[in-house]
Design a protein that fits this description.
The structure holds two protein chains of two kinds.
Chain A lengths: L1 H8 L4 E5 L5 E5 L4 H10 L5 E9 L7 E9 L4 E9 L5 E3 L8 H12 L2 E3 L40
Parallel strand pairs in A: 2-5, 6-7
Antiparallel strand pairs in A: 1-2, 3-4, 4-5
Chain B lengths: L19 E6 L11 E7 L2 E8 L7 H5 L4 H9 L6 H16 L5 H29 L3 H22 L19 H25 L3 H7 L7 H6 L4 H6 L6 H4 L20 H24 L18 H6 L1 H12 L6 E9 L4 E9 L6 E5 L1 H5 L3 H5 L4 H11 L3 H5 L1
Antiparallel strand pairs in B: 1-2, 2-3, 4-5, 5-6
Helix pairs in contact in B: 2-3, 3-4, 4-5, 4-11, 4-16, 5-6, 6-11, 11-16
Classes of the chains: A alpha/beta, B mainly alpha.
Chain lengths: 158, 404
């Protein structure tokens, strides 16, 4: 069992395990994310990084989340790893040298959420213009002009 | 000495006397088939290094999606890989259905397979004919585009649109296949093999074409996996990963089809894998159409499936549902789902976080093109410029998918 192997190795680092979701979801402490993913890749066979993206939860204490989807292609098993960091110190270790595909996905996450991936060779904006001075996918930036009064949020989404 | 220009142009002071030259391939270059830039460092005609700049058509779909109800997000997915938009549409519908726990009937599944495989054919038709164009054979392109036009007419018959289709609804389709649709699909299936065979005669064993593509832009299976390759590009490198077989959705497991794989992962293998996939898709469409069960063309999901207009005006219940959907008063389960479909270019994934609100809390598109395009510099280093163009077209980099 993956859960048991992981619990054995990272007993202090795993914050929660959710088996009820569509994919086994594990939330870990951000300080061990590199070792955690390396362990998954080398020992448990999760050799494919499907996806890496950020999420912003403005109501949580640690607001910025990074979600990794890994795939074990031999046994056809997926796993979702989540880790959270604060807005003040949004630093998470980069995994670009474990998975080359993480390079741009981390840049994209930095671009939209401002998560700083330490050890990344070139952490610059990728889709937005270079001189943008904020991180647009954070929830404090509404999609439409917030001074407009003709649109009531109750009727037009968030 | 200061670096010549911005750092990412990659001419360091120590390289000044090495006779390197910088070439801007793009952003608007006829050979890149899309708006993205490659800054190449060249030594003579050999590429030393490359640096990509993307984002020219970034449209902030993920942000827009956070303000749109589920059924309005379909139009955003059209514009990801616009060469096979129905796959994106249906992939999104399947994601929402997974969140809602809606199980669709076999008829809907088979109808979806017909559409998705037609879309895969158009995607591969474009990619392969463009490889021909970039290697100097324009004729095949014109032959194949005529066939693509026929698929677009089928889309038109089903949903009214051609390129950005907005095809299907959450829970099924907006209307049933008309006899005209069936007739057009059958006509298409009858004609396509002839044209494909002609196209293959033109290129597949053509000495010039083979010399131009074999051992050009190759990548090993291990590197391809590490770079997150999926779809035909990964299969050309010899890994038989296909979402349709690995995690079957929409009843793909009812059908018998093979996954073609290559060995070298070079341009020729990518071409051959796509070519063979079209033959498999033809088989799939035929099988799905023959075994199409009777039944309704949409599931009973009144919270998400807009009722027909005539019922809205005549029936109380339909009016209420219509109002609820449009005003966003339906219940959405709280949760997270990741669903992926085999898009034209590979695993197209949707990571949807719902907090029970009217719109997604977070929606992330896993765009295969965005992920594998990173490997481009590694694949073209040491090759000549004309090979780099061929490598790019054989990877099928679609700007819409790249930039989301």
């Amino acid at each position: 069992m993956i859960q048991n192997r992981l619990k054995e190795k990272f007993s202090n680092e795993i914050l929660s395990i959710d088996e009820g979701s569509d994919i086994l979801t594990i939330t870990v402490n951000k300080d061990c994310i590199r070792e955690f993913i390396l362990f998954l890749k080398d020992e448990l066979g999760f050799g494919f990084l499907t996806d890496l993206c950020g999420v912003h939860y403005p109501d949580k204490e640690l607001q910025l989340g990074v979600v990794y989807h890994l795939h074990d292609l031999t046994n056809n098993q997926r796993i979702r790893i989540k880790t959270f960091t604060s807005l003040e110190q949004p630093e998470i270790a980069s995994v670009h040298d474990i998975f080359s595909s993480a390079n741009w996905m981390e840049r994209e996450t930095y671009d939209f959420y401002g998560v700083i991936f330490t050890g990344h060779p070139k952490l610059i904006r990728i889709l937005n213009v270079e001189y943008l001075d904020y991180f647009p996918m954070r929830k404090e930036y509404p999609l439409e002009d917030s001074t407009r009064t003709d649109k009531d949020d109750r009727f037009f989404g968030r | 000495m200061e670096p010549l220009e911005r750092e990412h142009i990659l001419i360091r002071p120590e390289d000044f006397d090495k006779n390197f030259s910088t070439l801007n391939l793009g952003p608007t270059h006829p050979a890149t088939h899309g708006i993205f830039q490659n800054i190449l460092t060249m030594h003579g005609e050999t590429i030393i290094d490359a640096e990509q700049t993307i984002g020219y058509i970034h449209r902030a779909f993920e942000k827009i999606a956070e303000r749109r109800p589920f059924y309005q997000i379909t139009t955003l997915t059209d514009r990801l890989n616009y060469c096979s938009s129905p796959i994106n549409n249906i992939g999104w519908h399947l994601t929402v259905e997974k969140l809602l726990g809606v199980k669709t009937s076999k008829r809907i599944d088979y109808m979806r397979i017909v559409i998705m495989e037609l879309a895969r054919i158009t995607d591969h038709l474009i990619c392969n004919s463009v490889i021909g164009v970039d290697s100097g054979a324009l004729t095949g392109f014109i032959y194949l585009f005529q066939e693509r036009e026929k698929v677009y007419e089928i889309y038109e018959e089903i949903c009214g649109a051609r390129l950005t289709t907005n095809l299907g609804r959450i829970g099924g389709f907006e209307r049933d296949f008309t006899p005209d649709v069936i007739r057009k699909i059958k006509d298409f299936l009858e004609n396509l093999p002839k044209v494909l065979r002609q196209f293959e005669n033109l290129l597949l064993r053509n000495r010039i074409f083979m010399d131009r593509t074999i051992d050009v832009g190759g990548i090993s299976a291990e590197r391809a996996l590490n770079y997150g390759f999926t779809g035909p590009n990964l299969r050309a490198a010899g890994v038989d990963y296909d979402v349709r077989v690995m995690n079957p959705y929409s009843s793909y497991d009812d059908f018998d089809f093979t996954i073609p794989i290559g060995t070298n992962g070079d341009t020729y293998d990518r071409f051959c894998v796509r070519q063979e996939e079209m033959w498999q898709s033809i088989k799939l469409v035929k099988n799905a159409l023959e075994n199409l069960p009777e039944g309704n063309f949409h599931e009973d999901v009144p919270e998400f499936y807009l009722p027909p207009k005539e019922e809205v005006y005549s029936k109380m219940e339909s009016l209420i549902w219509h109002f609820k959907i449009v005003m966003g008063e339906m219940e959405v389960p709280v949760g997270e789902v990741y669903h992926s479909v085999e898009g034209g270019n590979g695993e197209l994934g949707f990571y949807l976080v719902s907090d029970g609100g009217r719109t997604p809390f977070r929606l992330h598109f896993r765009r295969p093109g965005f992920i594998y395009y990173q490997a481009y510099p590694e694949m073209i280093k040491g090759s000549v410029l004309s090979d780099a163009i061929l490598t790019m077209s054989s990877m099928n980099v679609i700007a819409g998918e790249l930039d989301a």
